[in-house]
């Protein structure tokens, strides 16, 4: 029997390119195999299609407005979140209370309210960043602090972590402008085409959250390229995550960054775009990752990752996505925190009744035990 030869690197690259071609059916991302999506019923499929059309029209409409106008509208949206009891307002207060227990209640409420205003600005400016000409978008970066950390070591790639802080879409575009870049990407049900087109505008290669997507990241680092990852999303329950402290609270934390750094020897930095007052643009921050992020000990590595996130957040805490349910998955024995009343006073009373168990240390509950 004739033995079939294995393809060489060039042939494998051509295969990756073949996988990369997006189809209307799968909307796959560049550089990876098609991502299987759940089949929707006829009614749900129609609802998704209609929602996508409406959302796309709104994004394109909003993108026509000047950035100062968008930020003023974002302020109005934030005002509505502040004065109307809702889950985003409640979740932001819960997260801030857990992460900053030393703050007095009035100071905590003021920080939450500033955060909701920035939350409104974040989502109204996204269309502008996606749709406006690239020269206009890049011109919004007024300053880059720590630019020397963005330089790749000779012959090695660089892992760049951008938390959901400030304008993370701008951080991704700025990274891709520096050189060949692969970005880890979670396919979306809504506006997926628009997001993909926007993030590819500077030539970024998007790798979905699959095994093949991870191989794309490894190959990019081995070529000496940049790899971008959003490090603060809660991963799925599997062997690739552990509980590690984030502001002292056990947070289910990805190990992907650690695996990439250990396998390729690539250094790791954090980068985010801080929003300046009065729609004056953005300040880019580049910060080296804390020691231990490439440790063979999973808990040490995940703790270093979260320490880096906290360091970034401390620069402009009002611009972090505090409404996100970052502590949704809890270690065994700890009660969930994102439920119950919406009124501020009742939320705080409930948290106080759960203390200290609501924020038990990772050491007390076991570093890598997910909630059953």
Question: How would you explain this protein's 3D organization?
Answer:
It comes from Candidatus Thiodictyon syntrophicum. Keywords: Acyltransferase, Cell inner membrane, Cell membrane, Membrane, Transferase. It is found in: Cell inner membrane. InterPro entries: LipA_acyltrans. The chain has a domain at 138-359. 45% of the residues lie in helices and 13% in strands. It has 13 helices and nine strands. It has helices at 9-20, 42-63, 67-83, 87-99, 105-131, 134-138, 168-178, 192-199, 211-223, 256-264, 298-313, 344-354, 362-365, and strands at 141-145, 158-161, 181-185, 205-208, 226-229, 241-246, 249-254, 268-275, 282-288. Strands 1-9-8-2-5-3-4 form a seven-stranded mixed beta sheet, sandwiched between helices. Strands 6-7 form a two-stranded antiparallel ribbon.
């Amino acid at each position: 029997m004739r033995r079939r030869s294995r393809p060489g690197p060039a042939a494998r690259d051509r295969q990756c390119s073949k996988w990369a071609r997006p189809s209307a059916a799968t909307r796959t991302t560049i550089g990876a195999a098609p991502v299987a999506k759940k089949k929707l019923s006829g009614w749900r499929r129609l609802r998704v299609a209609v929602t996508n059309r409406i959302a796309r029209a709104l994004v394109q409409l909003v993108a026509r407005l000047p950035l100062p106008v968008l930020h003023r509208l974002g302020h109005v949206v934030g005002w509505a979140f502040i004065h109307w009891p809702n889950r985003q307002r409640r979740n932001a207060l819960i997260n801030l209370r857990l992460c900053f227990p030393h703050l007095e209640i009035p100071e905590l409420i003021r920080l939450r309210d500033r955060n909701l205003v920035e939350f409104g600005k974040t989502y109204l400016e996204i269309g502008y960043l996606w749709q406006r000409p690239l020269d206009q978008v890049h011109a919004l970066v007024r300053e880059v602090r720590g630019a020397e950390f963005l330089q790749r070591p000779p012959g090695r790639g660089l892992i760049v972590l951008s938390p959901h802080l400030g304008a993370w879409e701008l951080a991704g575009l700025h990274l891709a402008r520096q050189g060949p870049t692969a970005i880890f990407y979670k396919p979306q049900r809504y506006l997926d085409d628009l997001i993909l087109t926007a993030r590819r505008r500077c030539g970024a290669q998007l790798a979905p959250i699959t095994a093949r997507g991870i191989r794309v990241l490894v190959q990019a680092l081995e070529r000496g390229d940049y790899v971008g990852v959003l490090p603060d999303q809660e991963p799925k329950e599997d062997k690739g995550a552990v509980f590690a402290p984030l502001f002292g609270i056990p947070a289910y934390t990805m190990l992907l960054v650690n695996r990439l750094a250990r396998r390729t020897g690539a250094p790791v930095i954090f980068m985010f775009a801080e929003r300046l007052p009065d729609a004056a643009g953005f300040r880019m921050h580049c910060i080296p990752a804390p020691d231990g992020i490439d440790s063979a000990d999973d808990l040490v590595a995940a703790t270093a990752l979260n320490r880096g996130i906290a360091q970034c957040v401390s620069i402009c805490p009002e611009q972090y996505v505090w409404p996100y349910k970052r502590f949704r998955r809890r270690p065994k024995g700890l009660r969930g925190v994102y439920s119950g009343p919406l009124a501020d006073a009742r939320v705080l009373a409930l948290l106080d009744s759960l203390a200290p168990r609501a924020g038990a240390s990772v050491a007390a509950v076991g570093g890598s035990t997910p909630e059953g």
